[in-house]
Specification:
Layout (H helix, E strand, L loop, with lengths): L1 H27 L22 H8 L7 H8 L5 H5 L6 H20 L3 H25 L8 H10 L3 H5 L6 H33 L11 H38 L10 E8 L14 E8 L1
Antiparallel strand pairs: 1-2
Helix pairs in contact: 5-6, 6-7, 7-10, 9-10
């Protein structure tokens, strides 16, 4: 009999502790709200862009995320300046973009194509400066702000790392993109060279009898074209990596692990969810905790 009690007593205690804990899990785990800020309910991937949210922010009825402001300002020129209450910049925005673009159209109609090209380049630079100004003037409540770091990296490669105070990463990403650009122009030059030779060797009107045959020129043309495309992919990969890096490490800025790590294991009395409310005695168990 005593042996039977020794077996049944621990089982009864474990069962008594498990039933309230199971009830607590069912009642609380799926109803608990882990987001204490109702304003963060807008920060959802379900709706990436909302015109109602965007224009409500422009009228200063509520705050909008920097991504919404940036996306809207790419189409509606000057909207980021309106949201940031920098109204005095609007003449510079419209004058800089529309004025230079109009001059480009005029010069192109006059036949001055080289001059028109540079006017269009100026319009693009003014457009980029408008977007950059909107990101710089945006005032988030926390630092570093992940949206601001990401858009910095999108507009200027490496600026997101500077914003995150991680300038030691700049040689890595700039080196990848600069190396890709170097080999892109090198491979492009060789590609154009062998393309010209191939055309000359296959043209009946030319008398090119150089040492490179048409078949060999075709082989090297395709080879350098492939290398040129790989170099372009390298530039894009370096650009994409620095954007991802700026976003991820802006989130992890406050995450730190101390060198003083310890583990603590101790027995304790753990009352289950509704133990005291139901007037039951607390169940006994073992609690294992990690202390960092």
């Amino acid at each position: 009999m005593k042996r039977l009690l020794r077996i049944l007593l621990p089982l009864l205690l474990a069962l008594g502790a498990g039933i309230p804990a199971h009830a607590q899990f069912k009642e609380e785990a799926f109803s608990q709200s882990y987001n204490d800020d109702p304003a963060d309910s807008k920060d959802s991937v379900d709706v990436l862009f909302s015109f109602k949210d965007f224009f409500g922010g422009l009228s200063h009825k509520h705050d909008i995320k920097i991504g919404v402001m940036f996306a809207g300002s790419t189409v509606f020129l000057g909207s980021s300046q309106i949201y940031n209450r920098d109204y005095w910049k609007l003449p510079l925005v419209y004058g800089g973009i529309l004025g230079t673009a109009g001059m480009g159209v005029y010069q192109n109609m006059q036949g001055n194509h080289d001059a028109a090209k540079w006017w269009f380049v100026g319009a693009g630079a003014a457009y980029w400066a408008t977007l950059m100004d909107g990101v710089i003037s945006y005032r988030p409540n926390d630092y570093p702000h992940h949206g601001k770091a990401t858009l910095y990296a999108v507009l200027v490669p490496g600026l997101g790392q500077i914003y995150n105070h991680e300038t030691w990463k700049l040689p890595l990403y700039w080196g990848i993109m600069a190396g890709g650009a170097h080999f892109y122009f090198l491979n492009r030059t060789n590609y154009l060279r062998f393309q010209r030779i191939y055309r000359e060797m296959t043209d009946d009107d030319t008398t090119n009898d150089g040492p490179i045959s048409a078949e060999r020129a075709l082989y090297y043309r395709n080879l350098y074209r492939r290398y040129r495309d790989y170099s372009l992919l390298t530039i894009f990969a370096g650009y994409l990596l620095q954007v991802i890096d700026a976003n991820v490490f802006s989130y992890m800025h406050d995450f730190s692990v101390s060198d003083d790590l310890a583990i603590k294991v101790s027995p304790t009395v753990m009352p289950t969810g509704a133990t005291y409310a139901l007037g039951q005695s607390p169940a006994f168990g073992m609690h294992f905790g990690l202390t960092f």
